[in-house]
Amino acid sequence: MGSGVTPLNLERTTVDETPLLDAWRHAMEPEMRPMQIPGHKMRYARDAHGWAYDLIGDTVRDDIGLQGGADDNALSHDYLGQAERLWSRAVGADHCRFLVGGSSQGNIAAVGTVADQDVPIAIDRTSHRSTQAALVISGAVPVWIYPRLHPEFHIPIGMAPESIAAVTEEVNGFFATSPSYIGTLSDVQGLAAAAHARQQPLIVDQAWGAHLAFMPEGGAIRNGADLAVTSVHKALTGYSQTAVVAMRDGLVARGVVNRWVELTSTTSPSATLLASIDGTRAAMERDGRARLDLLCEAAAEARKALARVHGLIVLDDANAGCRVDPLKITLLLPGTGVDGVQLGNELFSLGYGPEVADHDTVVFTITVADEPEWVSDFTSLLIAMIERHRGDSRPMSPVAVWRVQPEVVVTPRQAFFSDRKRIRLRDAVGEVSAEQFCPYPPGVPLLAPGERVTQETVDAIHAAGRMGRVAYNSDPTLEMIEVIDSI
């Protein structure tokens, strides 16, 4: 027996066509009481007297499953497929899949698509920790490509196309991160050309750059990437956890992408989350360009005002040595004497938490949900706070996570499944880590499974722990580490 969902007429050509979002709204209308999951039976949007409404009603009232909710159990209306095809068209892709496991799921699926057991794959070392998960699952051997670092600011300024040509191993593909966490952009066209000259695909983790696909320069796919992973919830308006993996036909196969997406997906996806991707795409196609123009202008004005603050460096195209995401505001504080951690904590107490704050750097993300007037007001507030906390100028301290050049002893998969022993981190120099130490944010590992522990790494982990959270390791106190018992 079907779910009671009536097929919709979704054969429209208007710019705001939203097949999955329409199906979700349609499912909200009737008094549906499915005799199947979800357990909350989709009652709480209408029934304030339902059991435990005071505890769960507000949190699940908009939750509708894809199967047996927005579509029937067989997904026979293909509302999700229609929405995915519309996204592909919007960003210049040949095929895409919507994800509810974030760009982490997308990175695992993308790497898995081109990786092979015990075969090298070249990966940007500033990549997100989810690429380590992809290496564990696929069994591929990482060949790390190190970022260019700014000679004065000591921050990553993108992966150079020349670094692809410099890889001597025969690899299955190349993986780059652009934009970086701090907003610096790689030359994706140049990277794609270099990868394609070797007849290999280019994957781009574009998690932080969903808006770029709707700007004149285009996103990673329009600039030649074969696979691109994009978070819809970071710079656009998707529900948390929403992302898309998109591809171009040629060097990667749709069937393999689909297989890896299915491998890493839940079998009970939320239509609510997925519909937010569909609605976001329609909004961006309708008037997103105008909205982005307004916000880019507001961000540019904010950078100008901040650049007038004595001693403050505001990252932009001119001083970074590469293009910078126009909606990212990255401040380098040493010349002001301000402690970025203290500044970030105060901003959090006011409800204005930054994207990331360490001793020297504070990063802010502007999105289409912000208003130009708010950006201006926030800039004034930020300038006043910097002046209030001003101290003596100091030299900039290089951030360890951008400078890691690990010794890979065994593959991440071998390390992950190895026999382990637990010892003190301070005594682990020379051992091979079986786990990951990852400052979050930015989510880039200082130490990954299969890498040699060095004194520099131990010092960097403890320093990162004093400033914030180091995640994904077995001991949150950072006193202990799990290492491979025997090689």
Question: How would you characterize the overall build of this protein?
Answer:
With 487 residues, this protein is an alpha/beta fold. The chain folds into four domains: 1-72, no CATH class; 79-282, Aspartate Aminotransferase, domain 2 (3-Layer(aba) Sandwich); 288-388, Aspartate Aminotransferase, domain 1 (Alpha-Beta Complex); 400-484, Ornithine Decarboxylase, Chain A, domain 4 (Alpha-Beta Complex), CATH 3.90.100. The chain has helices at residues 19-28, 53-60, 79-91, 102-114, 130-138, 161-165, 188-197, 254-264, 271-307, 317-320, 340-349, 372-388, 412-416, 455-467, and strands at 95-99, 120-124, 141-145, 174-177, 202-205, 227-231, 243-247, 313-314, 328-332, 356-357, 361-365, 420-424, 438-439, 470-471, 480-484.
Q: Sketch the major β-sheet.
A: 7 strands, mixed
Count of domain modules: 4
Reported by name, the CATH topology of the largest domain is Aspartate Aminotransferase, domain 2
Rg over CA atoms: 23 Å
Highest-level CATH class of the largest domain: Alpha Beta
Q: Give the helix/strand class.
A: alpha/beta
In sequence order, what are the helices and strands, one letter per element? Answer: HHHEHEHEHEHEEEHHEHEHEEHHEEHEE
Number of helices: 14
Shape: globular
Q: What spatial order of strands do you see in the largest sheet?
A: 1-7-6-5-4-2-3
CATH H level, superfamily name of the largest domain: Type I PLP-dependent aspartate aminotransferase-like (Major domain)
Low-confidence stretches: 1-14
- Percent strand: 5-15%
Q: Helix share of residues? A: 25-40%
For the secondary structure, the number of strands is 15
Mean pLDDT: 93
Quote the distance from N terminus to C terminus. 56 Å
